7-carboxy-7-deazaguanine synthase (Novosphingobium resinovorum), 248 residues
Amino acid sequence: MTLTLATTTPGQPEIFASLQGEGPSMGRPSTFVRLSRCNLACQWCDTAYTWRFTGDNRFHRDDLAFERRENQVTMEEADLAQAVADLVPDRLVITGGEPLLQGAALARMVKALDEIRPGMHVEVETNSTVAPHPALDARIDQYNVSPKLAHSGNPDTLALLPERLAAWAAEPRAFFKFVVATRDDLDEVMALQQTYAIPGARLFLMPEGRSSDVIRERSGWLADFCSQHGLRFTDRLHIHLWGDTRGT
């Protein structure tokens, strides 16, 4: 059985060791596995190569289309488990795209990983719209949940599913991360926090941006808002260190 991954270069699956750049695990050495395909289409997405293939007419502000053959590759579950085990970090971050679209295959991969290298901390990064596969859920240590606000360009009927948001809010392993571009986005965040009773200790705000200059410009007022409302702020460490590049 196989998983469908994004690539760093044609034919090279995006599996790499780095520092986690966002959220509650920021700064921790981690092994990343980036899966391909997404059920949403954020207009500012910095990994559009995982979903906006030639022929896909969903909007992205860069208006770039990527060739599927060069940006998507399949890999045997056992081979992926071995590739993760061979890297140094003891923390695995499964990201995308939307990784929970491949939940059953991920569950088998993580089971295979446990047989090679037991006890790794496993995180999943998700857009909040897909329920975890039960076999996968039993093995996940942390969910990094990033619901998409209106400025993402996704309709609420696709991006903000009440039953899923309620389930994530009730899940103590789930940390919420909202991407914020302007002050106008903050009212939407606060309304969602109130509606779903999301604890401030599990709610991060992160500036949208693919360059250090943009991130820093937005960080000041966003950090002030977090301190005033009992929320957590997260930077985008990897952007400052390596820029907006694959495999970092």
